[in-house]
Design goal:
By secondary structure, this protein is an all-beta fold. It has no helices and eleven strands. Strands 2, 4, 5, 6, 9, 10 and 11 form a seven-stranded mixed sheet that branches. A four-stranded antiparallel sheet has the order 1-3-8-7, with no helix packed on it.
Length: 123
Amino acid sequence: QVQLVESGGGLAQLGGSLRLSCSASGFIPSHYRLGWFRQAPGKEREGVASISYPSGRAYYEDSAKGRFTMSGNRAKTTGYLQMTKLKTEDSGVYYCASSYGDSWGDPEYVDYWGKGVLVTVSS
């Protein structure tokens, strides 16, 4: 029903920046969350940040506060994650995700997933 297409990712230096984009299409609900999870090798998938539509308010996991910025577009179909001051522990596969209503914070709440993009922060 909802398709999520990610772009961005790649290799970044320690302390550097990277921008991820997620474009949603299809049968998009009026009220939903659009954001990002990440998963490092051998670790569980964890939330990073999200934006709530139609309000446009951004929410952040503690690990992202002060370093990452979540934003959207006028059509309320895009989720941008601007990552700065990157750390090695930020490395992993980043997945765009969408959830109906205002539910968020756990992968079990996610209704749709993107395919994921790899982010590698080198030291």
